[in-house]
Amino acid sequence: xxxxxxxxxxxxxxxxxxxxxxxxxxxxxxxxxxxxxxxxxxxxxxxxxxxxxxxxxxxxxxxxxxxxxxxxxxxxxxxxxxxxxxxxxxxxxxxxxxxxxxxxxxxxxxxxxxxxxxxxxxxxxxxxxxxxxxxxxxxxxxxxxxxxxxxxxxxxxxxxxxxxxxxxxxxxxxxxxxxxxxxxxxxxxxxxxxxxxxxxxxxxxxxxxxxxxxxxxxxxxxxxxxxxxxxxxxxxxxxxxxxxxxxxxxxxxxxxxxxxxxxxxxxxxxxxxxxxxxxxxxxxxxxxxxxxxxxxxxxxxxxxx
Length: 305
What we know:
Helices cover 78% and strands 0% of the residues. It has helices at residues 2-24, 30-56, 65-89, 92-95, 102-113, 120-135, 147-153, 156-180, 184-206, 208-211, 224-253, 258-265, 268-280, 285-304.
């Protein structure tokens, strides 16, 4: 049952990362936030990597590791940027729940990529988790059966998160391939470094005026480096939370089916609804918590399976 503990911790720290990311985006542009989260996560993971190597030695790198890193890393560059855009443009409690669709997409991608398919009871659990996302916006039901989904998709954030959910249904499988062909810690270090390096040129290109030290409304002296300095604590803390999330997720998916771990990880939307109401004073907490309860029931069925 260690996979279950790791999966729950993944969900919890994922929600903490979302809160910290949204706070960062109030003062920092999304490309800098995306880069800092991945790069600082890489820095925090390095000591863990050395500790693991000291205790158990250097694991063998399998033949599929580099292919998984290239495909999974490249796709995660896109999801990292889209994720930041979604958090920036919409409420936490209305954008993050769209990630509940990842387990549904995994029903298609997992059998094709890693040959995994959940048991019938686990399948029902995944469907309940997705159904919970419908209930999150159930107040729109009077406008039609599909109105709750349509209402979600009217906002930019939920639309972007739905794309992220689909791409994650692919990258989660490559996470498992990469971890199995090396080790969980080597994989997360490599993929975070890959993403950070890939985002950096985008950061330079999209913010070239900052690096030329032209005036900016974000900071008094217009220096991009002052912007980083002023927000370094929240950016580093977000990276630290992201590092913990990744470690727990990778170890969990090496112990059980990818679909089960990601299904439980998606219950981070339950925490997201609560944090969105308590911290950002977002509305509609009652129906969104009802949807969260349905998701938890889905998780219970997965555990029983």
